[in-house]
Specification:
about 900 residues; 8-stranded mixed β-sheet; 8-stranded parallel beta barrel; 36 helices; binds phosphoenolpyruvate; binds magnesium ion
């Protein structure tokens, strides 16, 4: 028979996967001989079994839970439901990774109409006993049966009013009995049955509620954002109650061994005398700082401090502890490695190394790579955030916190910014013409678009907070307002965005700038010692490149050359090129474009000081580049010497039903070879000139996008070679250069061996590869993916976290085929996945040479690459 339930004394810290973090730690503390109210843990496997059995707890699991209750009764010398001295328990969830969003604690379980009398007798405090029962009914109804709290709150408020009581504590035992009777009536009315009197029924309902909470919407969102697999399940901890609300020698509190927001070494926490855990959290009474306990109960304080130190030494990490003092006796209710801000995480990590507690390897493995975002972008001030009201949430497209006045067009955003306002740009979706408004904005919110949409990619590159794809928004850009969650937000109203969580808040929530301390450099230095995977950046401007190099980029893995024309003075020129009818007109338009491009290439080569740069040839999805605004069309008509109607007709002609699969990528160069010719001239001249001027060892890497066939690549490559050789001859240069391709069409992955005959390197474009493997439009998937998460078909956004099962197989296969045909072929990834830690680990495993990601994610990728190397036992 499988074992589903473990008494605390049967477990230990190594059983975390089975017992969850809380259960494993309670077991470990029991083994250490610490004062822990005893109990048992229903394992995570029992949770998985519950789901596999069609959301049912099997007889076998239930039998083991009841056996554990019997043993607990034995240990505590009390009985469940006893009329003299009943055993009462708390029930809490506890998964492998600490996971907010799951079920809250249930306290005082085991009380019923009869045991409450026993409890009153035993404690000699009827008021306390009936208050505990009242709280239990309320908590059970709310948390387990999902009844609204308001029913109970209004009964309690009414009772207080009738009795002239100001506080709950002014109600007498008889008043509370009255409240309980009313609670039970409303319970029966709403639930259609009596409040359960059998403690075993209460317990089983609570266990089921914990299991159910594993799959509640908040928990699913949290798992998706933190890469926690759905099949881990949660454990349930059942623990004998101790009471912090038994008078002036009782109390309860929470404390950290170091400050969780700054990392400062020293006890940090608070407690309340004569209170239960929920009172500390509810904030009705103001807790005392933990140091005050030294005055109130010096012996307890000393014991507490000694145990806290012991726990930190034992776990070799900052601990977050809950404790209760019952009539002068101290109990620890739980300990865990404390959650901390990113600045605190790096401070604590460095301190622990300096204190000789942990090694740099352990530091690297422990820090959550994604949390580094907090160090590089503004965050909300904690107090201000507490008061913030969430009015919606969507995709966390680009991290950081932003607050500002809403504007609906790029021009207005820019004007407001120039007038000194902080601005949030809200758009149905963004396009290149919004670039200046995006630059001016603190944050960007879009109604449409996924994690690789224009808004997401561009905002991430700039380091601007962005929440994308909020389909619940009803927007009227003309009338300048949007509606969300019953709120109407007009131009000039404040909203706040958290691009790391996807939350949208009403009002102006104060933010604070990130600060990078010397510790950051130390940790990055350690990461670089261990990693084998190189980290490049996706950058298209000299400024972004410089920023990325500062953050540790070892080259540019993707320069999207069409992005070099996003600026207001450049976009008309690329439009002119796109709208040209003849090759002469196109060449004339290109002649205007190329000087900009060459100048930027030169500036980027200079910033890179010899580090490699992969230049990806033009790949403009037409819907992003064809003008849509009347003003732009008029200006373009003027510039091209055409009528507005002619330009509109031309735009209509270019209209594509599916531009992402349309006339883009190398298809443009196949149709209009002059584009590839001009771009080759720009790259080669820039490289040769900077090499000569600065002495850097530059080897241009020219990358052809959207290739699906070897012949297609060869066609473009021949054009590139012809022009490159011509430029070399003109300049008398013997510069080397490489021509490679993106692998971003499934056919290219399938035929990667053939393509490797022509390609000197591959860069996996996992944005398009995901789009085309799933058949999900990059720009539209956000609309329906939520339904997939809810139905548990997919757990995460395949545009954010590489789908290793499907798309990853294509990547791995193509890498193997490429290497077989061309040993030593350089392999990298440049899709947005390159900055996602789980994808970085995958890239390490399949032996890619580098990942390339947006500038601000470079440190994350460096850390994730080191973690991957350490996990694989392959650190340098
Ligand atoms: C990709 O498709 O993964 C890629 C990097 O190219 P883009 O996002 O520009 O299509
Ligand atoms: Mg692509």
């Amino acid at each position: 028979m499988a074992k589903w339930v473990y008494l605390f004394k049967e477990g230990n810290a190594s059983l975390r996967n089975l017992l969850g973090g809380k259960g494993a730690n309670l077991a470990e503390m029991t083994n250490l001989g610490l004062p822990i109210p005893q109990g048992f843990t229903v394992s995570t496997e029992a949770c998985t079994d519950y789901y596999n059995a069609g959301k049912r707890i099997t007889e076998e699991v239930q039998g083991q839970i009841f056996d554990a209750i019997s043993e607990l009764e034995e240990i505590q010398g009390k009985k469940f439901g006893d009329t003299e001295d009943p055993l009462l328990v708390s029930v809490r969830s506890g998964s492998r990774a600490s996971m907010p969003g799951m079920m809250d604690t249930i306290l005082n379980l085991g009380l019923n109409d009869i045991s409450v009398e026993g409890f009153a007798k035993k404690t000699g405090n009827p008021r306390f006993a009936y208050d505990s029962y009242r709280r239990f009914i309320q908590m059970f109804s709310d948390v387990v049966m999902e009844m609204s709290k308001t029913f109970f709150e209004s009964i309690l408020d009414k009772e207080k009013e009738e009795k002239g009581a100001k506080y709950d504590t002014d109600l007498t035992a008889d008043d509370l009995k009255d409240v309980i009777a009313k609670y039970k009536v409303i319970y029966k009315e709403k639930m259609g049955e009596e409040f359960p009197q059998d403690p075993k029924t209460q317990l089983m309902e609570a266990v089921k509620a914990v299991f159910r909470s594993w799959d509640n919407p908040r928990a699913i969102v949290y798992r998706r954002m933190n890469d926690i697999p759905g099949d881990w399940g949660t454990a349930v901890n059942v623990q004998a109650m101790v009471f912090g609300n038994m008078g002036e020698t009782s109390g309860t509190g929470v404390a950290f061994t170091r400050n969780p927001s700054t990392g400062e070494n020293g006890i940090y926490g608070e407690y309340l005398i004569n209170a239960q855990g929920e009172d500390v959290v509810a904030g009705i009474r103001t807790p005392q700082p933990i140091t005050k306990l030294q005055e109130d109960m010096p012996e307890c304080y000393e014991e507490f401090m000694a145990i806290a130190k012991r726990l930190e030494d034992h776990y070799r990490d900052m601990q977050d502890m809950e404790f209760t003092i019952q009539e002068g006796k101290l109990y620890f209710l739980q300990t865990r490695s404390g959650k901390r801000t990113a600045p605190a995480a790096i401070q604590i990590a460095c301190d622990l190394v300096d204190e000789g507690m942990i090694t740099p390897e352990e530091v690297i493995s422990r820090i959550d790579a994604k949390s580094l975002d907090q160090l590089l972008h503004p965050t909300f001030k904690a107090d201000a955030l507490k008061a913030g009201k969430v009015i919606g949430s969507a995709l966390p497209a680009s991290p950081g916190a932003a607050a500002g006045k809403v504007y609906f067009t790029a021009d207005e955003a820019k004007a407001a910014h120039e007038a000194g306002a902080r601005v949030v740009l809200v758009r149905l979706e963004t396009s290149p013409e919004d670039i200046e408004g995006m630059h001016a904005a603190e944050g960007i919110l879009t109604v449409r678009g996924g994690m690789t949409s224009h808004a997401a990619v561009v905002a991430r590159g700039m380091g601007t907070a962005c929440v994308s794809g909020c389909g619940e928004i009803k927007i009227d850009e003309e009338a300048k307002y949007f509606e969300l969650d019953g709120n109407t937000i007009k131009e000039g109203d404040y909203i706040s965005l958290d691009g790391s969580t996807g939350n949208i808040y009403l009002g102006d929530i104060a933010t604070e700038e990130s600060k990078i301390s010397g510790n950051f450099g130390r940790i990055m230095g350690w990461a670089d010692q261990f990693r084998t995977l190189k980290v490049r950046t996706n950058a298209d401007t000299p400024a972004d490149t410089a920023n990325a190099v500062k953050l540790g980029a070892e080259g540019v893995g993707l320069c999207r050359t069409e992005h070099m024309f996003f600026d207001a003075d450049r976009i008309p020129k690329i439009r002119k090129m796109i709208l040209s009818d003849t090759s002469e007109a196109r060449e004339a338009a290109l002649n205007e474009l190329i000087p900009f491009q060459k100048a930027d290439f030169k500036a980027m080569y200079e910033v890179l000081e010899g580090k490699p740069m992969t230049v990806r040839y033009l790949d403009p999805p037409l819907h992003e580049f064809v003008p849509t605004e009347e003003d732009d069309i008029v200006a373009l008509a003027k510039d091209m010497g055409l009528t507005v109607e002619a330009v509109k007709a031309k735009c209509d002609e270019l209209h594509e039903f599916n531009p992402m699969m349309g006339h883009r990528g190398c298809r443009l160069a196949v149709t209009y070879p002059e584009i590839a010719k001009m771009q080759t001239r720009a790259v080669m001249e820039a490289a040769i000139e900077v090499k000569a001027e600065k002495g850097f060892d530059i080897v241009p890497e020219i990358m052809i996008p959207l290739v699906g066939d070897k012949k297609e690549l060869k066609f473009v490559k021949d054009i590139v070679i012809e022009v490159a050789e011509k430029v070399k001859a003109e300049k008398g240069s013997d510069i080397e250069y490489h021509i490679g391709t993106m692998i971003e069409i499934p056919r290219a992955a399938l035929l990667a061996d053939e393509i490797a005959e022509e390609a000197e390197f591959f860069s996996f474009g996992t944005n398009d590869l995901t789009q085309m493997t799933f058949g999900f439009s990059r720009d539209d998937a956000g609309k329906f993916l939520d339904a997939y998460y809810k139905s548990k078909i997919y757990e995460s956004d395949p545009f954010a976290r590489l789908d290793q099962n499907g798309v990853g197989k294509l990547v791995q296969m193509a890498a193997e085929k490429g290497r077989a045909k061309r040993p030593g072929i350089k392999l990298g990834i440049c899709g947005e996945h390159g900055g996602d830690p789980s994808t970085v680990e995958f890239c390490h495993k399949i032996g890619l040479n580098y990942v390339s990601c947006s500038p601000f994610r470079v440190p994350i990728a460096r850390l994730a690459a080191a973690q991957a190397a350490l996990a694989a036992g392959a650190a340098k």
